[in-house]
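Mods, move this if it's the wrong board.
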Amino acid sequence: MMKNVVEVRDLVVVRGGREVLPGVSLDVSSGVTGLLGPSGCGKSTLMRSLVGAQRVRSGTVEVLGLPAGSAPLRTRVGYVTQAASVYDDLTVNENLGFFARVLGADRSAVDRAVDAVALGEHRHQVVGRLSGGQRNRVGLAVALLGEPDLLVLDEPTVGLDPVLRRDLWELFHGIAEAGAAVLVSSHVMDEAERCHRLLLMREGRIIADGPPEEIRSRTGAADVEEAFLRLVEGREDAA
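Not the wrong board. Structure tokens:
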């Protein structure tokens, strides 16, 4: 059995006096895992906890056998936030070169990252002049510089057209096939079918965990959106 890349136990996070995560426990292993749920349900808070960017009240978060946010994880975990964390006034190459120096990655890592996100033809363009989808790819390329074992993607396809969404999901699967664990959050239920495994989240709690087909079968639903509604409304099939 493959060892878990992420292990979360009894995680409690309080923000603004509100308990956002009331004691979440979950594991993440290889492949593409989708974290799906409505906006405001705690997905981003959970992801920040995995990369060590969130203050937690209690519980434990381990990534690759180390506490989340540990220095040795710096190049082993890639994180892409909802807003691309790149410089609009620099070219693609300049952005990647800057972050490569921060991470201690060599020039070949920049070339591999650019190729991985299919931006070779745009490497000398200023990021602020790229399309939304291309800009997202630059942020993803930055996350790939350290050739991470875990890639955490917070709503990476929000606002993109269907073609760009399809292309990015193909890229996520390619990264997973190369050996990384990929955790992707989304509030768009039709993206669920693109994942090997789903974590359905509501009000800070994981309400279902398993492959899409298993969750559909267990709830007697035609699709994951219907399965989510059945779980929320307590209409899960007894079978």
